[in-house]
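Weekly modeling sync, notes
Attendees: S.R. (lead), two postdocs, one rotation student

Agenda item 3: backlog of single-chain predictions. S.R. asked that every request posted to the team notebook include the full sequence so nobody has to chase files. The rotation student volunteered to paste the first one in as an example of the format we agreed on. Action items at the bottom.

Example entry:
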Amino acid sequence: MGVVTRGLGALGALVAIGVLAACSGGTPEPGDAFAYDASAPRDVVDSGVVNAPYPVAVHELSYRSGDDRVEAYLAVPPGAGARPAVLYLHAARSDRTQLLQPALWLAARGVVTMTITAPSIQDEPADLPPREALERYASQAARDVIAARRALDLLAARSDVDPERLGVVGWSAGGRAAAILAGVDSRVRAAVLLAPGAAPVSEFVAAAPKDLRVAVEETMSRIDPFAAIARAPAGGVLVQAGREDEVVPRRATEALVASAPPATELRWYDAGHALNDDAYREHMSWLARRLAVTGPPVAGATTGP
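Predicted structure, as returned to the notebook:
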């Protein structure tokens, strides 16, 4: 994010500390940054199970999302019948491995889970003029959310998944993407945002140089998580945050929650940005209620920290 910091001054500083970086099938409006062609081939490549003989099988996958090939892990518990499915979205500068352990905990409770690597992670740093850097950032944010929507397509098409019981968990930058996903894709019935945060578009505009303010307002409005999360299902969002978070300021988390739909829950923990075991245990229980997870845990598999 260094090029954005240099090009956009205070706006870039917000990006650098993770406020912007931290912190859906509905029908998108014309020109929606997160619109995509759901009929395009997913071109799924399954490279096989990578964790045998563990009782929850983890498949190494990749699939097509626009011009991107997205890498993923798919955790499939044994058994028959259509079950809930939950998508996990990682933090900045990470990949599909980061939340694989929590995904496996939830899969051990009978949920099909998937982790993906955000397409923007593969982009090479580029020293761009400020306007181009701004557009590139917006394009990256859109590609990452569209890749998540394509992952939901893949999950919903599976015979062992109930397409009416889909959820998403996102941490930090993944929390921001999950907030957008929950608002722009009506298939998401449950969204857990771990240590998320965002600033309103007006704050970015005020921080930008005068000659960039119109461009900043137009561009950031297209990917605004505040506008998106307002359209998430009532009671379908849980936000978890650490009182000692060293990355996302408390006000950034509270601002995002203030824009969320009715009955959104905000829970605080005595933890930093990474949260703690209590947070993971609590949101898995919350997901189980919201997505009607039933049945016994998978024998021999670990169901939590």
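Discussion: group reviewed the output briefly. Residues 108 and 303 are 5 Å apart (CA to CA).
Action items: rotation student to repeat for the remaining queue; S.R. to check formatting next week.
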